[in-house]
Design brief:
Blueprint: E1 5-8, E2 11-14, E3 21-29, H1 32-37, H2 39-42, H3 47-63, E4 68-71, H4 81-88, E5 94-100, H5 109-120, H6 125-135, E6 147-151, H7 159-175, E7 179-182, H8 189-199, E8 207-209, H9 218-225, E9 230-233, H10 246-258, E10 265-267, E11 272-275, H11 280-283, H12 293-304, H13 309-324, H14 332-338
Parallel strand pairs: 3-4, 3-11, 4-5, 5-6, 6-7, 7-8, 8-9, 9-10
Antiparallel strand pairs: 1-2
Helix pairs in contact: 3-4, 6-7
């Protein structure tokens, strides 16, 4: 990947061509074990039906005015890049995929054992896998990851998550791609993540603290953004109990724009177009949890709340383009010094 370019399912794109971007979505999140061994659970109507439905839903996203989505499905979700390639052949949308690991503590036993073996030999298995996904591509698809995903939950930096965040930081420094996180804003988890990234030499202006929109704590959100990092109000349509409502999320963004933070905010839904994590009974409780909700409902609500078109362009176009453009990685000697 050339510096400044953005890796997508259909090849490198200029960051200037990304257009309106949703920064945190999932197209397919299906367990490989269930897909192989219990396909009736993974794909109740068959895999082709799931692919067709994803194409139809993504076409509605494109028709609503979105040009790019960032699919942050990673190890632990799991990814299905060959299916994404098939889907993207049928819908004219940029899809940026991720590497990383989704867990609030230790990874899968396979990764844990391989990491232990690598550490005995002075290496880091997590870093090797993440960098290979970014530089060489995922599987045999040739699709390169354009962002790194990592996670902490309510318990904060556990032994396992600390190692994965550190690996994400090293891989980000080596490759120049940004980091996006899953965080618990009620535990002020973004600040803990940023402290670790800063200690590892990451440019915090290239970090997105995910799920920040779940809280209305403006002091916390401003503290995150004052580091240079970006907050993601990325669960529009998915107001879990104890988290902010749509109206509250809109009001928070409007307040932050008024205070000069419009250049450090992105939006999305965290929607899962097809997954074996959830069933229809669960998703029926969230009728707005669809990646058309931001362009059709949230954007008009933000305008009504006083957010200017210039600020909306910054949130949907300018900041995603800045974040996703591949930066110049650190020289290897600097990486060795900081590792």
């Amino acid at each position: 990947m050339t510096t400044g370019a953005v890796a997508t399912v259909r090849g490198d794109r200029s960051s200037a061509d990304l257009g309106r971007t949703l920064m945190h979505e999932h197209v397919f999140a299906v367990s490989a074990a269930l897909a192989n061994d219990r396909p009736e659970i993974a794909f109740p109507d068959g895999k082709q039906a799931a692919v067709d439905d994803a194409v139809a839903r993504l076409q509605r996203v494109k028709d609503a005015g979105i040009d790019t989505i960032v699919d942050v499905t990673v190890f632990g979700h799991d990814r299905d890049i060959p299916s994404l390639v098939r889907i993207n052949e049928r819908v004219d949308l940029n899809i940026v995929v991720a590497t990383g690991f989704y867990t609030e503590d230790v990874p899968s036993k396979t990764f844990e054992i391989r990491q232990a073996l690598a550490r005995q030999r002075g290496g880091n298995f997590f870093v090797d896998v993440f960098v290979a996904d970014i530089v060489d591509g995922i599987g045999t698809t040739g699709v390169r990851a354009g962002i790194i995903k990592c996670v902490t939950g309510a318990a904060g930096l556990t032994r396992g998550s600390k190692g994965l965040l550190r690996a994400a930081a090293i891989a980000a420094r080596e490759t120049g791609v940004p980091i996006t996180t899953h965080s618990d804003p009620h535990a002020r988890g973004g600040l803990e993540q940023l402290e670790l990234f800063a200690a590892e030499g990451v440019d915090l202006a290239r970090v997105v603290i995910g799920h920040s929109g779940d809280t209305t704590d403006l002091d916390y959100l401003k503290a995150v953004m004052d580091t240079g990092a970006t907050i993601a109000s990325d669960r529009f349509g998915y107001a879990l109990p104890g988290t902010a409502t749509t109206q509250e999320r809109v009001a928070v963004i409007a307040d932050l724009c008024n205070e000069g933070y419009a250049d450090r905010i992105v939006v999305s839904h965290d929607a899962m177009l097809h997954t074996d994590w959830l069933d229809d009974g669960y998703t029926a409780a969230f009728p707005d949890w669809d990646p058309t909700f931001v362009p059709t409902t949230v954007v008009p609500a933000l305008r009504e709340a006083g957010v200017s078109d210039a600020h909306l362009h910054q949130i949907l176009v300018g900041t995603p383009a800045r974040l996703l453009a591949c930066a110049t990685p650190l020289p290897k000697e600097r990486i060795d010094e900081q590792s």
